[in-house]
Design goal:
Shape: globular
Low-confidence stretches: none
Mean pLDDT: 81
Structural class: mainly alpha
Number of helices: 7
Order of helices and strands: HHHHHHH
Distance between the termini: 45 Å
Oligomer: single chain
Length: 203
Amino acid sequence: MNTVDLEDISFDEKKSLQVMKTAIATSKKALMQDGILLILWGAGFSVSNFWNYYKNAYLTAWWMRNMMEVFQIVMGSTIIGLTIYFIFFRKRKVTTFAAISTRFVWIGVILAHNINVMITKSILSEINFILLQPLQMVLIGFALFATGGIYRYYILLASGIVMWIAAATAANFDLNIQFLIRSVAEIICFVIPGTLMYAARKK
């Protein structure tokens, strides 16, 4: 009887270990596939912020401004549509706890940013974008850092730290330079990690 019990315990331990390994592998695979979302959002944010910098720093024709406004609307709608597809309609064998946690982290960051906007507007009677830009970068850095911690993916952890450094640096400049700093930071913290993740999805 004791021998049978020991064999059952050993079998359960092996089975539990296998389940844990499978869950970790599935979680990391999902993260690697979602690298495309980091690329899309990073590129979208970076283009938008660089354009805000460029049009304020240099004289631009009205047709170029109108064209870029239409381009940004189309680009934003496309990215949001692809994100909805990847999160809700793409077929996955398993929805991991890590994936669910990450969604709540990013939803929380979006809500926190909007609450910051409402608070600054109520206190200052206007929206202070010079203050909000660094604060939003801090929140984005937190989301990247937390996502990297959840998945044990240290490139994203480093990206969060880089975004925090960029936020602290941007706080010392006017709004237009903040747009430029944030544009560069989004390439480093979103596009580069996303490219590495997406390239490693089949390994």
